[in-house]
Amino acid sequence: MPHLPTADPYLPHHGDPSWHAVHYDLDLEYDLVGNRLSGTAVITVEALTDLDRLVLDLAHLQVKKVTVDGRQPAKHAHRQHRLVVSLRDRIRAGERATVTVKYAGKPHPLVLRHHGDAGWEELTDGVIVAGQPHGAPTWFPCNDRADDKAAYTISVSTAANYTVVANGTLVRRTRHGSGETWTYQQVEPMPPYLATVQIGRYALIELDSAGRVPIHAAVPDSARADFDASFGRQGEMMACFERLFGPYPFPAYTVVVTDDELEIPLESQSLSTFGRNFLTGEWEQVRLVAHELAHQWFGNAVTMRRLQDIWLHEGFACYAEWLWAEDGGYRSADAWAAHHHARLDGLRKDLLLADPGPDLMFDDRVYKRGALTLHALRGELGDDAFFGLLRTWVARYAGGSADTADFEALAAEVAGRPLTGLFDAWLRRKELPALT
Ligand SMILES: [Zn+2]
Fold first, then answer.
1. Beta pairing partners, 176
2. ω into 133 cis (within 30 of 0)
3. Contact between 164 and 197 (Cβ < 8 Å)
4. How many Å lie between the centroid of ligand 1 and the Cα of residue 267?
5. Complete domains list, the chain, with CATH
6. 357 vs 114, 308, 314, 354, CA distance in Å?
7. Distance, CA 318 to ligand 1 centroid (Å)?
8. Per-residue pLDDT of the chain (436 residues; tens, 9 = 90+)
9. Residue 14 near residue 22, CB atoms below 8 Å
10. Which of 81, 83, 180, 436 could form a cystine bridge with 56, CB 3.0-4.6 A?
11. Could you tell me the distance, in angstroms and rounded to a whole number, from the CA of residue 317 to the centre of ligand 1?
12. Rounded-to-integer distance, Cα 196 and Cα 140, Å
């Protein structure tokens, strides 16, 4: 299949820039014992150019049937994680069509050279879906681009003694025989990589949110006693971030704690997932509780247009850790900035923050140098203008995508003067600028 599109050079052979997904309706059935997933995806497609074919991303699962507006297409072929649908009738730019894909198989993570493995993964007793950055095609056919946001309905049927958590709001829960169907609706636009399903023997609990945002947790019974050590101040943290970043951008927030240990936590839209090893209450874990919550503003509401702009997610979420340290009475952001500046100074300086390359996009130096960039900007602007900038950033771009140039332009707008020198030094040079 020659000439298949790549939407983002950091993620070869994923995504198609010629169409936009408006809505995904995913109806999934999952057998936990046999790790068997069968699904029907109904995708509302909008053509961005005249289309005589549609390319979707779908990995490891077998396509059973494809229809376009209820009719069989000319043909479809599925190879190397791409589903190519040749259309009987051309879809003109700006027009919409409904593509239905029935599929089934044994889902498992997709391994990529630069990015490791991501996607639908079996736990000891349940499922975790870690989509970032290339895992979405392991469980539904999609246009796998960070800059293509859609609304979702995700419906999962599985054994009745399990809890299913997905993005957005639980709108229906129906028991049938030994099974149960959980239906979630995600209204706020979301890219495929932030879509998720979490299945486990979890108790659903309501946390004391101390504010306007409902906060839930899905926790194994055996981990309930330890939960508060790391998550006891989640409501307070939410209030702090709403004050600094503006209103929490989704109707509710859910924390999932898996019974398995996980190497790192992960963010999805409107929820975050942690392993049970993150419950000791040490700063190394509490900082990640802050980090994942901050991604709801920086990464999920406002999403990078291209993966090279990852510092707009990770630098901001890392800086939020220091802000929580300051507000929560642990340690000042100044002290964290000095600490990490000294550490970075001792490491190799071969990374460009504005374009780290796919190998280094999740390198810890992207996180820390990104946070230091914001700290330097805060020093330059003063607190009022700096936090005003963060709130305007979210208010202006929530629900959409943005890039580094957008952030620099907004910062200059807020400052009332260009800040090219500061951004050049931190983003586009390899040497580490001094912290003033
Ligand atoms: Zn992160």
1. 179
2. yes
3. yes
4. 7
5. 19-197 (2.60.40.1730), 203-296 (1.10.390.10), 304-427 (1.10.390.10)
6. 9, 7, 15, 9
7. 7
8. 558 999 999 999 999 999 999 999 999 999 999 999 999 999 999 999 999 999 999 999 999 999 999 998 889 999 989 999 999 999 999 999 999 999 999 999 999 888 789 999 999 999 999 999 999 999 999 999 999 999 999 999 999 999 999 999 999 999 999 999 999 999 999 999 999 999 999 999 999 877 789 999 999 999 999 999 999 999 999 999 999 999 999 999 999 999 999 999 999 999 999 999 999 999 999 999 999 999 999 999 999 999 999 999 999 999 999 999 999 999 999 999 999 999 999 999 999 999 999 999 999 999 999 999 999 999 999 999 999 999 999 999 999 999 999 999 999 999 999 999 999 999 999 999 999 8
9. no
10. 83
11. 6
12. 10
* H or E element at residue 174: strand 169-176
Q: Are 163 and 218 within 8 A, CB to CB?
A: yes
| Ligand 1 mean position, distance from CA 367 (Å) | 8
Q: Which of 367, 132, 379, 169 is nearest to 273 (CA)?
A: 132
Q: Based on the number of CB atoms within 10 Å of its own CB, is 179 exposed (0-12), middle (13-18) or buried (19 or more)? A: middle
Interval between CA 425 and ligand 1 midpoint (Å): 23
Centre of ligand 1 to C-alpha 292, Å, is: 6
Distance 361 CA to ligand 1 centre (A): 11
CB-count exposure of residue 193 (10 Å: 0-12, 13-18, 19+): buried
178 CA from centroid of ligand 1 (Å): 38
Tell me how far apart the 2 most distant CA atoms of the chain are, in Å.
65
Could you tell me the end-to-end alpha-carbon distance of the chain, in angstroms, rounded to an integer? 54
If you measure from the C-alpha of residue 314 to the centroid of ligand 1, how many angstroms do you get, rounded to a whole number? 5
Task: Please report, for residues 37, 72, 250, the alpha-carbon distance to residue 186 in angstroms, rounded to integers and kept in the order given.
Answer: 21, 29, 9
